[in-house]
Amino acid sequence: xxxxxxxxxxxxxxxxxxxxxxxxxxxxxxxxxxxxxxxxxxxxxxxxxxxxxx
Length: 54
What we know:
By secondary structure, this protein is an all-beta fold. It has a domain of 27 residues. Strands 2-1-4-3 form a four-stranded antiparallel β-sheet, with no helix packed on it. The chain is elongated, with a radius of gyration of 12 Å. The N and C termini lie far apart (25 Å). This is Large ribosomal subunit protein bL33. Belongs to the bacterial ribosomal protein bL33 family.
């Protein structure tokens, strides 16, 4: 199967100011706005919000 642009790779950058990122895929049709997830930041050693970067 060929990869399409419907599920692009997105970077999730920590709002804790550490610069740590996660990389994931998202469905652009069902979630057109920016993704915000609460994930673990190993630099801060706690859970913080990660926001989608473009």
